[in-house]
Design a protein that fits this description.
By secondary structure, the chain is α/β, with parallel strands linked by helices. The chain has 11 helices and 7 strands. It has a domain of 172 residues: Aldolase class I (TIM Barrel, Alpha-Beta Barrel). The radius of gyration is 20 Å and the shape is globular.
């Protein structure tokens, strides 16, 4: 995760990236983290460069990709919302440069939430040129069926209906910012219905982590949970500590053993009042964690980075 900067404030962004983002991962730190991850993997470690919006600093992105290739590191994917794809020559030049730098897959984000800020013509252009240069097997669009739609000319009422229909298809994670802005489109259930649903695999056995520009390591899509900080200790030691002493981390331990209901029981003791219903266990987990984040306690180091818990001036519906 090269940056928390993005030109958009999408309702679905569980990492809460926005134009207010100011953090950028240095080239040196990116390469160091990448080498550490590669050393830990039994095979080559595929890294996915994302953000925020990594194309917000094109020279930085390209330098990281080129240095990775020089160290025989695997650049599995580069992801973008394609906001910058307004000129075919620029798209062609950048894709050719990334291809030469070893990029395996070019990924484009396209959905109603992104298109509230990025005209659909931009991802369409990026997709067309990428397919031509790289071949369809190396181009990924989330979601490709949306490329034929877009939100041009949509009223607030129409967009609201589109958002509701999209969420009903369960295509987006109800976590982080999305839990606050999109959960209302889904059926809600009492917190007690999520009892016994632990999160051990998602937290400790996943194959996917986000490493942010400040060094926070977050498991998969569990935004705002820090497994440790790669800028403060070697990643191998962080992994070993999680294996040896997960109980030293009250949030991770509670979620791994008993899920959000276990964490909620701790929060209730200091004043958390459950809402009438939640769209999923992730929605419940987010509500509890956001409450705890505002309270000093032994969980503070795990509920990070703080920017994920902060509210910006969002402009999305409803």
């Amino acid at each position: 995760m090269l940056t928390d900067w993005c030109p958009s404030t999408c309702a679905s962004c569980y990492l809460r990236c926005s134009p207010a983002g100011r953090q950028w991962m240095s080239v040196e730190f990116a390469l160091d983290v990448w080498l550490q991850l590669d050393a830990l993997c039994p095979h080559r470690c595929g890294v996915h460069l994302t953000g925020g919006e990594p194309f917000g600093d094109w020279p930085r992105l390209l330098e990281i990709a080129r240095l990775a290739k020089s160290r025989n590191l695997l650049l599995d994917k580069v992801e973008t919302n394609a906001y910058w794809a307004t000129d075919e020559d620029i798209v062609r030049q950048r894709l050719q440069a990334l291809d030469k730098a070893g990029m395996k897959t070019f990924a484009i984000s396209a959905d109603p939430f992104h298109q509230q800020f990025v005209p659909i013509e931009a991802p369409r252009l990026a997709w067309r040129v990428a397919v031509e240069l790289l071949g369809p097997q190396r181009v990924q669009v989330r979601w490709e069926d949306w490329l034929g739609q877009g939100l041009a000319g949509a009223t607030d009422e129409t967009r609201n209906a589109i958002f509701a229909e999209w969420m009903a298809r369960r295509r987006d994670r109800v976590n982080g910012q999305a839990a606050e802005s999109l959960a209302g489109y889904l059926p809600l259930r009492p917190a007690g219905e999520f009892a016994g649903l632990h999160c051990r695999r998602a937290l400790l056995r996943g194959k996917h982590v986000h490493i942010g520009p400040e060094g926070y390591i977050m498991p998969g899509v569990c935004a705002g949970i820090s497994l440790g900080r790669a800028d403060r200790e070697p990643i191998g030691e962080i992994w070993q500590n999680l294996y040896d002493a997960p109980v030293d981390k009250p949030v991770i331990s509670a979620l791994a053993q008993g899920g959000p209901m276990s964490l909620m029981s701790q929060a209730v003791e200091i004043g958390f009042v459950p809402a009438a219903g939640y769209a999923s266990k992730c929605h419940l987990c987010w509500a509890v964690r956001k409450f705890l984040h505002a309270k000093p306690g032994p969980w503070s180091d795990e509920l990070a980075p703080a920017t994920i818990y902060e509210n910006h001036n969002e402009t999305f519906l409803p």
